[in-house]
What does this fold into?
Amino acid sequence: MANALYDAGREGFLAGNLDWDANDIRLIFVDEADDTIDLAVDDFLDDRAVASRVAVSGSFASKTTTAGVADVADVTVSSVSGDQFESIDIYYHTGVESTSRLICNIDTATGLPTTPNGGNISVVWDSGSNRIFRL
Amino acid sequence: MSAVLVPKHRQVDVRREGARVALLVDGREVLAGDWRQFDELIRALQTQARLAEEHEKRDGIVGDQAILMRLGVPVGLTRNPALLRQAANEAAWNTRLRRYIPLKRAGGIKSQTVFGTPGVVLGPAPDPSKE
It folds into this structure.
């Protein structure tokens, strides 16, 4: 596939349910072998199988939205172990899975798929004009 | 002769005598006539049964018909004008309908979202000798 927004993510931005720089945005490493992604139907975190979630980051820092470009500071997830993951979901963390809106899925990145070795894993965002994504 | 058991323990039998067909309930003849009359009766029963089925499954029919209408597929799942009107209304206004339509056929304006290409960097594994 390709990196893409979830339909729920688009809806969230349009309907004002997502505020990129004010909300608690996080990422999850996803083992796609344990869950089949559906960008149109999966809308909240509870639509992604628990078994497919390899690791979750903390809250994104230094979020910016200038010119519709979503950007944050690079993210490091500490001491990751578990299954190989093939993609990364970015979502709005509310603390409740059924209201944590899925924003986008990234399956095209250098270094993917990745097999955790117990060490830290960093996600370094594109330094070009599109950063994470540009609406 | 064939026999069908129906609720309330009533036994329904169908019997043929030459060109004459008879319907018996609990051994009593309740309907009898020429085989042509029974052919017409069966067709009428089938028609009513299909209409009754349509009534029971009307929500599903409306939903499926609405998806077909949204996709522009010229296939009708019913001839019931009320259900067709309801389906047309759903096709026009149900914003969640596109969830059931494959992305390539959902139409609309193609997303202009552009993604960067991040990098995933795997750090060194913990050194067991230092733990």
In short: The mean pLDDT of chain B is 86. Chain B is about 35% helix and 25% strand. The CA atoms of residues 54 and 79 of chain B lie 10 Å apart. The longest strand of chain B covers residues 10-17.
